[in-house]
Amino acid sequence: MNFEQVTALKKLLSSSKRIAIVPHKNPDGDAIGSTLALSHYLSKKGHETQVLAPNDFPKFLKWMPGATEILNFERHNTEVKKYIENADLIFTLDFNDFGRVGQMAECLENASAQFIMVDHHQQPSDYADITYSDVTMSSTCEMVYTLIDAMGDRDLIDSDIANCLYTGIMTDTGSFKFKATTSKTHRIVAELMDKGADNTAIHEKVYDTNSPSRLHLLGCALKNMVILEEFNTAYITLTQEELDRYDYEKGDTEGFVNYGLTLNNIRFAVIFIENKDEGIFKISFRSVGDFSVNEFARNHFEGGGHTNAAGGKSEKSLQETIDYFISLLPNYKKELTA
């Protein structure tokens, strides 16, 4: 954070406030970790806080300190709307456009509160009074740590905050292997461990609590994988029928797209997952090197994200979506095979 942002935030927080903290729809480890950590921190500073999620989040994150207090817009619609309406401040974390919160967007657009954005995705919208955006950061959790540090409050980081922040950094860096992981990231993680983050327990709770049905679903996904050697690309498909067959629960497909990148010479991996209720195929894009899946998703699939990790959607049928996707690849052959 720069000096002006820190000064402005300190002024906003100089007296007790009613604060809503909002992650994106289908929140992941970084979204839940950052919102809960910020909530714990601001509560220690004397503010009234409430995390308001657009919808539910995966079971493997529900052990996190404060997770049971999160209000879900789909389940607690009236309470969420009332809290937003009466909030003094609204922090939006791990997203930078109201299009990422689904049906909550209208509530946020009509809110009278001042907004503070904390996010590391590219091309932020201009809705916040304070926009803390840094695409070089590994995660929003790393940004929340940096915010706390900039406010001069590292001494307020306790084991609850440390466990939340560690979880988000770990998940958004692919257990510290992605390109955005820096030496600073590791120094922050080391301090979080000193503050009480239980790295072994966190890893086990996030990655080692699979159900048999999830592993069977992974087997189905891998069986469906198609490799396009000419473009150093691999893609996976999962239909609603396949999700239902293996008793899909929210979060079960987390990380599936990354399996494509474990193949030799593959530089671009994609997964297409049907959501029949919404009438779309949700798409996740991953890449290695300089190929920007953020630009690919923005240009062709109404999405965006980071250079090496992005999301999008298609309202076409599966076959139409796949055909369209494959038709685009010749335009990127040089980037994918250089």
TrEMBL record:
Record-annotated DDH domain positions: 18-169
Domain named DHHA1: residues: 245-327
Molecular function GO labels: nucleic acid binding
Highest taxon above the source species: Bacteria
InterPro entries named among the record's database cross-references: DDH_dom, DHH_sf, DHHA1_dom, Oligoribo/pAp-PDE_c-di-AMP_PDE
Protein name: Bifunctional oligoribonuclease/PAP phosphatase NrnA
Lineage, uppermost ranks: Bacteria, Pseudomonadati, Bacteroidota, Flavobacteriia, Flavobacteriales
